[in-house]
Amino acid sequence: MLLQLLPEGGWGYIVSIVVVSLYVSVTAVGLSTLVSLPIALVIGFTDFPGKRVVTAVINTGMGFPSVVVGLVVLMTLSNSGPLGDLELAFTPQAMIASQFILATPVIMSISLSAVESIGQPIRDAAFAMGGTKLDVGLVVIKEARYGIVTAVLAGLGRAISEVGSILIVGGNIVFSDGQSYTRTLTTAITVEARQGRYEIGLVLGAILLLLVLVVNGLGSWIRSQGRGRGTS
Fold it and tell me: What CATH number matches the domain at 2-231, 3.40.50.300, 3.40.190.10, 1.10.3720.10, 3.50.50.60?
């Protein structure tokens, strides 16, 4: 019954949507982590005028309206935008850029909290043992690793469940053979619901829910490991 309701491409349509969703979200979060973690470490290790303001801005970024982010990215990448020559509008790369912007404040804020939670005595002990700033940084990362991994998973959860911005910048495109180009789980659910194919929407929703549950489950397990380590 469900197979008869599937668009051209059959189950390949579902698989291609899942693949695009994971590719875009994991790539965006990976790139965001490479940017967010060093910045969080620098802010956490240094005292400078306006540090509270910078931290407040980062925390505020966690609530960025996704549709506004999508609109700004699309304007930047459109033919009339400053990066229009790259021809990235309505591509997976544009979706990655949008999710990168949305995930970065989440990863940066939680990582910063994890780094700042490491007490000064641990840092002083590392310095007293002759450690350089790099050595101390590595010690702090090791102590804060549970919080940092939680931050990455939180960013992934934000990215994979996003719909507004990627619908704007990706265009929700499917090839003529039914394979997804920029259609993700969230945007596909929107389309299937509008077309009255609720069964397919429910299947896609179940897959998305499973992915989110896996991410949240990993986050909960990592947090419990960190608490267990802290009390041992």
Answer: 1.10.3720.10
